[in-house]
Amino acid sequence: MKVGIDRIRFYTPRWYVDMAKLAKARHEEPGKYLIGIGQSKQAVIPNTQDAVTMAANAADQIINDNNRDQIDLVLFGTESGIDNSKSAAIYLQHLLQLRADIQSVELKQACYAMTAGIQLAKDHVLAHPASKVLVVGSDIARYGLHTAGEPTQGGGAVAMIISADPKILAIEEPSAHYTADIMDFWRPLYATEAVVDGKYSSQEYIDFFDRTLTEYQTKTKSSLADLQAVIFHLPYTKMGLKALKSVLNRTDERHANQLLREFEYSRIFSREVGNLYTGSLYLSLLSLLVNSENLKSGQKIGLFSYGSGAEGEFYVATLQTNFQTAIESGSIKKVLEDREELSISEYETMFNSQMPLTNDNFVTNDKLDSAKFYLAGQKDQQRLYRRREV
């Protein structure tokens, strides 16, 4: 039985900052951000959106009357959780008006958690073939204004349905893991901004990719030449390019150029949004599927997932017949095309307007945000989520 991605969609708020203009405001050469980091625009998150509402706005696009009652498990990967006890998946289940007799769980391991959710969902469907699983990765990447990490911020959510007989991608067996206790990136409970050792994290990312790719090839007796494309978790798009180039000596020049070409397609959307943390790899997947002119059913795509701290996984998925029809490319592109640019001062104001991690009551500027799901504020230490009828 084939199991994999049946539907997939993406959400990010409607505002962005131009990276060339941000570079100038920070007294940097634009090329440092545009080429050195590989980013053109960066999503800016208003105080009306958090991990829960962005997940709801993404998932709402793939849930309908045909699949709603078949969903019996919700797996929510995030490192931007809003409660140390209650799962973000419970809030999501309620906002999406899903059945009450289902399981809803939040998963955490930095940027790797959504991949963990996909693999758990696959096993669940193998055991329960009639089931459909909603898997979401939703995050806000924050490092602070005027910091070294500022140009690698961003935010958004990717949602997918994992099912039998998937329309888009079938996930292959096996996969390869590598886990090590390292301190390359973390966010203490008292902080909204992460702590990162950038150079160390980059080195570990490439090392984990090499280890998991090699282990996968050993397990499956396969080679790089079997893959039409290799896509990556992209905290910034230059990172994935460095990792890909590190293994191109394992294949011939023609195939190496093919992998480089497909990588360029896979990073188009991430260049426009920035870091999604848990959803980043799957935004790369969407970008490849929407933008590549070369993909055909039956071809295999390699996926490298990395979560600092650290855990990595490499696995392969096969494109299904008529996958292009199931992607809904026009709707995905429209999310990015309909956004509005903020000036640097407007961006800084929006960045600083986030609801603080305190027990104070708070009211957001919900008249600004037209999204279907939004955060109205906090009252009596409870977040107030709203569903706008549109």
What does this protein structure show overall?
This protein is α+β, with helices and mostly antiparallel strands and 390 residues long. It folds into 2 domains: 3-168 and 328-387, Peroxisomal Thiolase, Chain A, domain 1 (3-Layer(aba) Sandwich); 170-321, Peroxisomal Thiolase, Chain A, domain 1. The chain contains 13 helices and 18 strands. It has helices spanning 19-25, 30-37, 51-59, 88-95, 113-127, 198-220, 237-245, 253-266, 268-273, 280-291, 323-327, 329-337, 344-352, and strands at residues 3-11, 15-18, 41-44, 71-77, 103-107, 132-141, 154-164, 169-171, 176-179, 185-186, 195-196, 229-232, 300-307, 311-319, 340-341, 362-363, 373-379, 382-387. The strands form 4 sheets. Strands 1, 4, 5, 6, 7, 8, 9, 12, 13 and 14 form a 10-stranded mixed beta sheet that branches. Helix 1 (19-25) crosses helix 2, helix 3 crosses helix 4 (88-95) and helix 8 (253-266) crosses helix 10. The longest helix is centred in the middle third of the chain and has 23 residues, at 198-220. It is globular and about 60 Å long. It starts with a strand and ends with a strand. The mean pLDDT is 96.
